[in-house]
Write a structure and sequence with these properties.
homodimer; twelve-stranded mixed β-sheet; Rossmann fold; five-stranded mixed β-sheet; BirA Bifunctional Protein, domain 2; 34% helix; globular; alpha+beta; 26 strands; Translation Initiation Factor IF3
């Protein structure tokens, strides 16, 4: 017998968190780097999670009247330039198409040919091309609001990439709306943020803080950027979704005008909001442990795996029959608007089989041997509990109660993440304490330290910049929830408001 | 009173079919040209149809064990070159990314900057990048089969574009599988063709002929290309989906090798198969009439629109209540695995309202006035019938029978298309008859003529090329269904097999 490893993933989170992240992804078979710089291949186990996230979001969007549409992948260079801040924000990371053919040169090598009169940018986001469409579609207040969403890919040529968290190409949704009044656009901006928060908390079991970005951290071209911020297990913040109030900036740049009820001409008010495959990175870093990832049942690629075990050849038929019958019954059960996804894994590869599913983070593992067949039971392991902790349940009870068990796992994951965040959140009033809080104890070995510091900020960009320069700590958001009164700026001591400081992805 | 136009769309199909096609799309608000050359904007009414097509296909794929995944948008130039026929087939229409930044030049104008060491091609299809992944994932026969599908966008720089039918960027799915044996790969190629045929016939009510392409019409790099061909109302063929047996071509080019059960090393056998937003063009041209598009209920963006009518102000409340209540009840009904999609349109814009929905092709229009409220009825118009033909139904009966009515419309559309195809299909044995069949009667005014000619082909590329050159008629496919024996080649008279000739999109 080989000795069981203490943990399935090496290194552990506390040993080397960034490397742990790469290793859990590899062990789960969710995704991998591609031969194209900074781009990833999302494998079926990872893509199924994304499909569930998309489905949940799409339903929430549609409940609020949003409809899906599709706009071109390419944006003419001239469009990008219409909004000055916008182009400034994205110019450094644009993939540019300059040719529309390949031709053989004198040496027989294939080279780009057919130069385009105007280069095309592969969309890093679609505000400018959608604003152009809006300007044609909107003439009167009767045409408003327009509430659209697009599912697709975008490209931002990032220099330092990390799977799911920061990739040159990523999948996302981007919502774009136009309204007759500022109040309505602001309401939509907040509504979509609420949806992101619900998605994160209810579907992904990831507690988030809702708030507004400081001017320095806003989306290029936005008047205000709202965000949700989650805490990862290395105590860093992950921005998990953003909703932008664009004011009349893009309307002015692209001439989105409409006639009001009293026949005046006005610029429309627009919003945009997005969430991406980055959420998958958030799920991994919120719930994963030293045995691999843990998928929250509401979004899990599959809910349960059945693992038939035959110690003797003559047991095989009965065990397989029992297993297949159970799979059929489970697949008829529903869990939060979708059919249960049941995997059956009959491979005879010993203990490696169970570990594979643990590393994949499937919520429930069910072992079935001759004993279970005889006693009409199942032997169930929950991914949120230690892998040795398994319990025997009556087969029928398991089928009828599985949705409840999954909900229980979902709640346990949320609760665990909420406790972690609570334990790594502090109120700090003193500058020295603040600097101490964000200084690693051991610089040779990056360790999990710090967290969310609720401290004051006077509103000066210079103070924000100073903290960022000294500690690589940024203001994650000005929380939406009523703060407990004013707080002195942690950088200069002047009166300010309470904000959330943290290191971030 | 304004005089009712005889037809909502001008020109009619028989007046000018290509222009009719543009006008029905405009009138339906499904899509429009974008400012980016050859790219379209798919508007909500068009995108909802695509969502339903995706959902139906996705379910059918998954039933056969296919899982979704996602590969990079960009393909390194060196990958494109690995399969000689493949690069030859796509080189002329590749969008090429050469830079990864924008910078201001001396005049302040934004220009591409940061030249890439190796140019990247925006995927026209993903065989080469997926083959590279397969070569890494596959080591043993135990790793096979791999059954993947990708939903996404692709770019082919077409010189002459037409919305949905031929656009520089389009949305599609591309399936890619790898197998241990030739037989299994061939079986998968045929299975996916069967799925496309089922989708076309059962969901889109579009009769198709299944068959194989001639070598000249094969996918670049394929050993065999199977296809489904539908007849449009101008009697031209539309290739609506293709399934390719790639043999070991891409496996050899990308070294996809595996160890067999008896420890020999072999190349894997691969397939690929795709269907795109072109299907929407097929739906429009199969079912549309001179009043606009007609959506087959199984894929329709919405199933029914409720049109409240108030002749006097005091009727308004009762009519609206009755309408809203009916909408709620209808939305609880299911139709082929999805909830009924019900639109309510209370706009007071006179007859234009009803015509808008006719032009959008919604299967059912329901008028509700004071009389309907009093008599507990609904006044129903079916899009597959003349717009004057409407009938009064008991409200309760309508709610319980709506799924049946929709199925009836679905069958009627299929039947109508099948009759059209039958009436425009001929068996031709004589060369002169063949040339006559495909020669327009009036060359000044392109007219609807010709159709599918079942005639012989000896197998010589020269004969195929001659027919194409003389008549712009191509061999659409060698039908899968048993032909009625041999047929003399329509070009040279030598013995041959029966194939389908037609003009095509």
């Amino acid at each position: 017998m080989t000795k069981q490893p203490k943990h399935a993933i090496s290194p552990t989170r506390s040993d080397d968190y960034p490397e742990w992240y790469q290793q859990v992804i590899k062990a789960s078979d969710m995704a991998e780097r591609s031969p194209v710089r900074g781009c990833m291949v999302i494998k079926p186990w990872g893509y199924a999670l994304w499909e569930n996230i998309m489905q949940a979001m799409d339903a929430m969007f549609k409940e609020t009247g949003v409809k899906n549409a599709y706009f071109p992948l390419f944006i003419p260079l001239s469009f990008m330039q219409k909004e000055a801040d916008h182009v400034e924000g994205f110019a450094k990371e644009c993939a540019v198409v300059t040719h529309h053919r390949l031709e053989k040169d004198d040496t027989g090598a294939l080279v780009p040919s057919g130069r385009l009169a105007e280069p095309l940018v592969v969309r890093p986001t679609s505000e400018t091309i959608i604003a152009d469409a809006f300007s044609k579609w909107i003439g009167s207040y009767r045409d408003l609001p327009i509430l659209l969403n697009q599912w697709g890919n975008v490209v931002r040529w990032e220099m330092r990439t990390r799977i799911f968290l920061r990739t040159s190409e990523f999948l996302w949704q981007e919502g774009h709306t136009a309204h007759a009044t500022q109040a309505e656009a602001l309401e939509r901006t907040r509504l979509m943020l609420d949806i992101y928060a619900r998605l994160a908390e209810e579907v992904l079991a990831m507690p988030v803080i809702k708030g507004a970005k400081t001017p320095a951290e806003r989306f290029p071209g936005a008047v205000d950027t709202l965000c949700i911020e989650a805490m990862m297990q290395d105590c860093k913040a992950l921005q998990a979704g953003t909703s932008h109030f664009l004011g009349q900036n893009f309307a002015r740049a692209s001439q989105i005008k409409f006639q009001t009820a009293d026949e005046k001409e006005e610029y429309a008010w627009t919003t945009s909001w997005g969430a991406s495959t980055r959420l998958i990175g958030g799920v991994i870093m919120t719930h994963g442990d030293d045995d691999g990832i843990i998928l929250p049942p509401r979004a899990a690629s599959a809910h349960v795996v059945l693992l038939p075990i035959f110690k003797k050849e003559e047991e095989r038929q009965a065990v397989m029959d029992y297993t297949e019958q159970l799979a059929r019954e489970l697949r008829r059960q529903r869990y939060h608007d979708r059919a249960l996804v049941v995997e059956v894994d009959p491979r005879e590869i010993g203990g490696a089989r169970g570990w594979e599913w643990i590393k994949k983070g499937i919520p429930l593992r069910v072992e079935i041997g001759a004993r279970e067949v005889k006693e009409h039971t199942v032997f169930v392991g929950r991914r949120d509990q230690a892998h040795q902790m398994r319990s025997s349940l009556k087969r029928e009870a398991f089928v009828t109660e599985i949705a409840g068990i999954l909900d229980d796992i979902q709640s346990a994951l949320f609760e665990r993440a909420a406790v972690f965040r609570r334990e790594h959140s502090v109120e700090i009033g003193e500058r020295a304490d603040f600097y101490d809080y964000f200084t690693p104890r051991n610089l040779d070995k990056p360790e999990i330290h710090g967290g969310f510091a609720f401290s004051g900020w006077c509103g000066e960009p210079a103070c924000e910049a100073k903290i960022k320069e000294d500690l690589t700590v940024t203001i994650r958001c000005i929380p939406s929830e009523a703060a407990e009164g004013p707080a002195a700026c942690i950088a200069c001591g002047r009166p300010g408001r309470r904000v959330v400081y943290a290191k971030a992805y």
